[in-house]
Amino acid sequence: MAPDERSRVEASQALADQLGPAAAAALMECIPPFGWHEIATKADIAGLKVDIADLEEKLFLQFDARLHEEMNRSIKWTVLSLFGGLAAIGGAAAGIAAIVS
After folding, report:
1. Which residue, of 15, 17, 39, 93, has the greatest Cβ tally within 10 A?
2. Where are the domains of the chain?
3. pTM (2 d.p.)
4. Segment (H or E) for 44
5. Under 8 Å CB-to-CB from 24, ≥6 apart: which residues?
C-alpha cells in the first residue's frame, strides 16, 4: 500500500520524537513517497532496452525506405528536366536554323 502524505507526516513525527529531527529526516528520505510496486526493476529496464532497439530498427528501415523513395523521385525529375531542357534547346536551334535559312 502506498503511503499517503498524512501517514508520512505521522511516521516522520514519531521518528523525530524517538531519534531526533536529523535522523528522522534522513530515514524519511529513504522511504519513497509512492508504493514499492511502482519502482522499475532491472527486468523492466531490460524490456525497455529491447523495445528501444526494436523501435530504432523500425525507424531506420522507415528512414531508409523514405530516403530511397525521395532519391528516386529526385533523379526522375532531374532526368525529365534535363530532357525537357534539351528538347527546348533543340526546338530553339531548329527555329533559329529555319529563320537563318
Report:
1. 15
2. 1-39, 40-101
3. 0.42
4. helix 42-100
5. 12, 13, 15, 16
